[in-house]
Amino acid sequence: MTKKILTIAFIGLMSVGFTSCKCLNGKNKNETTMIKDFSLEGSEWKLESVGDRKFVKPEQMQSEHIALKFNDGYAGTSDGCNGMSGEYTQTGNQLEFGLFRATRMYCEWELFSVPFSTVKSFRTDGKQIELLNENQQVVATYSKL
After folding, report:
1. ∠ at Cα 89 (44, 97), nearest 5°?
2. Per the domain annotation, does 14 fall within a domain?
3. Structural domain includes residue 20
4. Contact indicator for 144, 122 with CB cutoff of 8 Å
């Protein structure tokens, strides 16, 4: 009986100890954990900002947002009037865009252009993605759709 009580007490103390260690691992629950092996294929994102300029939807723009889609080795973006698309290559978090084709219809607003040719990598937490240049500066930020 005493052995059983000691075993239960030991298991209880170990459980508390492991829980305490988990809480003290240095991460705040509000910190964002970046995902390393994240595949962009089949994903769709909504533009939030280009560099430090926040995207504000023009009143005349019919589309709700500017989306960036990754499908079958191609990336495409559209503002509801004009669009761009081209090949992309992803190796881990390294990302390169090929030449983009674009439509040039007259729109009542200017396309909020992302300089995709400067993108060299990305980081994401699965909910938001930051496209980065060779100096790890943010080129554009998108949120998951």
Report:
1. 75
2. no
3. no
4. no
CA gap 11, 7 in Å, rounded: 6
**For position 98, which CATH number holds?**
2.40.128.270
Q: What is the pLDDT of residues 76-104, one digit of tens each?
A: 998 888 899 999 999 999 999 999 998 88
User: Per this entry, what is the length of the chain?
Assistant: 145
Cα separation, 86 vs 47, in Å, equals 17
CA-to-CA distance for 33 and 145, rounded, in angstroms? 19
- What is the reported pTM? 0.74
115 part of a folded domain: yes
User: Structure tokens of 141?
Assistant: 């930020």
Side-chain-side CA neighbours of residue 122 (13 Å): 27
Number of Cβ within a 10 Å radius of residue 45: 24
pLDDT of the residue at 17? 40
Two tokens, residue 34: 């970046």
**Domain span including residue 124:** 43-144
> pLDDT digits over 30-65, tens only?
345 678 889 999 999 999 999 999 998 888 888 889
- Going by the DSSP 8-state scheme, the letter that residue 12 receives in this structure is H
Number of domains in the chain: 1
